[in-house]
Amino acid sequence: MKFYGDFTKKDWLDAFGVDEKQIPLSFIIHGEWNHEENLAFWKDLLKKELWLPKWNTIIGEYKETKIGFANVYGSPIATMITHQFALAGTNQFIQTGYFGGLSIDVKYGDILIVSQAEMQDGASHWYLPNSKMVKSDEELLSAAIDYCEKRGYSYVVGSVLSTSVMLLETQEMINEWASNGHLGVDMETAATLSAAKRFDKKAIALLNLSDHLIVGDSLYSYTKERELIEAETDIKIRDLALYLSSISK
What we know:
The protein is an alpha/beta fold. It has eight helices and ten strands. Helix 3 runs parallel beside helix 7 (about 190-200). The mean pLDDT is about 95.
């Protein structure tokens, strides 16, 4: 009997019950606890040739490009999607979602284009056991920067630390992560980048500032202004992710 770690491309296609033509070249993996609204939005956006392989996963066409979307939360679920679809034939993965701010150089409304991620999430080291950091794909990084410049989107480029337990973060941890030069902390980026890299696939993360930790903001101190800025930035990140998907090869 063959187990998951030995599955080949054919095994995963057989598990999905599809042929390779139904596998998207690009996959957007969105990290967020509240999934229902996201899934409804993407079902409508990708409604042409719609395929629902999993409860949290949607595949369809957008402007004649086959794209996948999955709503995840935390590194294990992120790797479940990246691992299976990388082996099935997807060539690039775009992690979207949110981060806690660790630098005064970041402000609400910025898109954080992640250059690399520190692997403290508990899943990524299984894919790259001898690494502590994992980088975004250079071509995707350059394309993301160029598109933001063209569209006039506010952005920053830098590293994040990926962790697995948000609710155990302390001021001491936040100060340490900031002193190491990270712009933010999230829960999925390192896992998605690592799983993609393990299978020689491209990946990048595009994140939205949800709580500016270094200045004392938390998820429980939201204001209407922050909510509005976050929603506007979500739209820009979605536009950027769809653009990167449209140029996937």
